Every structure is written in structure tokens, then in C-alpha cells.
Amino acid sequence: MSASGIEPGDHPDDREDRRPPVSPTEGTDQLATIGSRAWARILDGLIIGIPLAVLIMVTSEVDTGKETLHIPLGVQVATTLVAAAYEVILIHLRGQTIGKRIVGIRAVRVNDGAHPDWTASSMRYLLPALPALIPIPGAFLLSPVVYLAAIPDPLRRGWHDRAAGTIVVKATAPDAGDGLSAR
């Protein structure tokens, strides 16, 4: 026994079983399907989008002469921050948004299966969100490309997954300590 009381190989970083939770050659049945990922994205869009749309409708003015909608800058900033916080905080803390939880999938770090850190969670949100900020027609078409990149990938990773070092897998059980586990 060493002076620290930990034998060589006992430290979690020394174990040989530290590998990605899923690899292209084994366990691909654990990967989340493209369909389940799409459903989770749709559900999250509804969960966050409906309340934000109501806020926008209540606080905005329509100029019927010019057929334009004037959304106050504060509301634009607030909706952007709420959407970002929803995604980034939940992915960091639980590995899943409400939509992912309903569908039964979660995002994990590809190197160790843990929840994504703040940087990875932010990257997963920002990469698909940034093209929507480009003020040119058709920019909104770039965001889906980030997600569609998962289709040919053996690990079903979109560009946002690759940039963040994450993978989306089937969630076999709720996290311990999340308050939602069966007792």
C-alpha cells in the first residue's frame, strides 16, 4: 500500500475501463437514434418556444402599414438568454433537456461518459444557434446542417457534438440524486 492509501490502479484515472461509452465497433445499440434526437429537439422547441412566442406576441407591436413586427430589444435579448440557459444549464447539470428526458436520451462526454462541462454544453448550443444570427436570407438553413451531419457519422455526432466532444446515447436510468429516480 502506498503512503496515500491508494494502490496503483485504484485511482479512477488509472483504470483501463476509461473509454468512450460508445465506439463505432461495439455497443452501437446504445447510441441515440437520429429519430429520437429529432423528437427531443422538436419537444424542446415546443417547451421553450411556446412561452417565448406568447411573450413576444404580448410585448410586440405590429405596423400594419409596413407589415412589420417590432419586438422590443429587451424581449429579443431575454428570449435569446432564456433559450440558451435552458439548453446549456440542463445539458451541463443533467446531460439532458426536458425533451431529451421525455425521449430517453442524454448527451455525455465521449471520453468518459460524464455530463458535458460548461464549455461543451455552451458549444452544443452555440454552434447550431449562431447561423440564425446571420442577417441574410437562407441563413436559417445552415442550422439544420449542423444536426444533419450526424446522419452519415458512425457515432451519429452532429458538428455541435464533435466540437463539444460529446455523444448522445440512450438514457438507461435517471441520474442518481436528480430527485426523479424511483424510490
Please explain how this structure is put together.
Helix content is 43%, strand content 9%. It has 183 residues and is mainly α. Strand 1 and strand 2 form a beta hairpin. Mean pLDDT is 79; it is low at 1-6, 8-19 and 176-183. It has one domain (28-169). The strands form two sheets. It has a two-stranded antiparallel ribbon with strand order 1-2. Strands 3-4 form a two-stranded antiparallel ribbon.
Briefly, what is this?
The protein has 183 residues and is mainly alpha-helical.
Basic shape: elongated
User: Would you list the SSEs in sequence order as H and E?
Assistant: HEEHHEHHHE
Counting helices, strands and paired strands, the structural category is: mainly alpha
Catalogue the unreliable spans.
1-6, 8-19, 176-183
Task: Summarize model confidence as the mean pLDDT.
Answer: 79
Number of helices: 6
Number of extended strands: 4
Strand content: 5-15%
Overall number of domains: 1
Helix content, binned percent: 40-55%
Our measurement of the CA-to-CA distance between the termini, rounded to an integer number of angstroms, reads: 38 Å
